[in-house]
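pasting for ref
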Amino acid sequence: MGLYGFTPALAFDSMMKTQISAQVGTRIVIAYLVMTVLAAAISWLVTLRWPVSTRRSVTACTIIGNNGNFGLPIALLALGDAGLEMAVVIFVLSLVVMFTVGPLLFGSSGGIVGGLTTVLRLPVTWALVAAGLLRAFDLRLPGGLESGIALLGQAAIPLVLIQLGVQMGTSGKIHRTPPVIAAVALRAVVVPALAVGAGLLVGLDGLGLASLILAAAMPIAVNNLMLAREYGADSDTVASSVVASTFLSIPILVVLISLLPSITG
């Protein structure tokens, strides 16, 4: 319901109403990709002496953050509707990374092509394409249909919070192993720092930079565990990393949100 129903409605509604300029949107995309590549490289270097499956798992945990059922509500609460619009853009980017690079890291034989196929099957992708085409040709949907989609979109945030609670409740014991500590530290400290650098490098400031930094500070995505189990990776490390990262992110985000105005100007 979340991934195939309410979230596509939220993406469509946000795209139709967004005030994000093409320049800012492009800079966010470039900065996010630069941040992701650098984070993956650093993680791979940090884990050089560990088994390949563990290295892959730690690297995936480092670059794939929870920009859906954690990132969207936090962006709305911290940055308002304008911040939510940018968070939706970053969420879609994270889905692309998750379903292309993620399976590749976890050992999928399908590689990037298989991941891209998965992304093209997601309704959220086509919701953004449809909204983009409507805006490009200055068209609108009939009022009742547009209002219905907006209402569905409003249900997305409460639903993803419930999903997060259920996922956290079914998680097992946290194992404090070196790979888990590395994954959590890289996600909590290194990735936000890279976001600041990448954002400034491409000329982001204000709300755009704040949205990127906030997205980078999100905990490790729960879907990493799904991918790890699917492709036979180090699922124990991933499971512990997800839970530890999620709990640790709460105090980190409290501090970060209070500091964002001074960081981003």
